[in-house]
Amino acid sequence: MSTRRGPGRPPGAPAARREQLIEVTIELVGDQGYPAATLGRIAEAAGLSKASVLHHVPTVAELLAAAYEQVLASLVAEVGAAVEVAAVTDRPGVYVIAMIGYFRDHPRHTRVASEALVHLGRPGQSQERWEPLARLLEQARTARGLPPAADLRTAALAIGGAIDAIVREQQTDPDYDSTDAAEQLAAAVTTTLLSPPASRPR
């Protein structure tokens, strides 16, 4: 099988076209939901024929899956960067604020993630969600001189659920102050999990 490019095809063109299709899918799904991301509308938005779209990606569902993976990669990179520059003692709170802030600042990504969950069953592995936060909590407790906690998995699951609830609320109510909610949740995490027992309010 020949691997030579046809005349006029620039290096990396297939990859660039696929990226374009993923971006178009994020825009359509993010603005109007998964039902709006039909093959015809994706092709029209990308300036391609339906056959050309199918040449690069066989189904719309696969495009949604690829869009979800791109959203996830962007989320991990941005939140990870925020956490990395924070002091170890403060990283759980920074994680909470960065997660909620990402979805507030990227509403299309929020909807793509929600639609992928509903239509593709793509929530990700549970451990992939709670384990990084549990590790941040453990490291912060150690850095603060606190003893090991009995069950940081449950704590991380509860915090993740609270993050999801705040993100959903900001989706449904434009007047909801998710910035303040994120700060309240981060403060609660610090008070309940990262403070010596004697300093916690009774």
TrEMBL record:
Residues 15-75 form the HTH tetR-type domain. PROSITE patterns: HTH_TETR_2 (PS50977). SUPFAM superfamilies: Homeodomain-like, Tetracyclin repressor-like, C-terminal domain. Keywords: DNA-binding, Transcription, Transcription regulation. The keyword Disulfide bond does not apply. Residues 38-57 bind DNA. Pfam families: TetR_N. PANTHER family: HTH-TYPE TRANSCRIPTIONAL REGULATOR BETI, HTH-TYPE TRANSCRIPTIONAL REGULATOR RUTR. This is AcrR family transcriptional regulator. The lineage of its organism: Bacteria, Bacillati, Actinomycetota, Actinomycetes, Micrococcales.
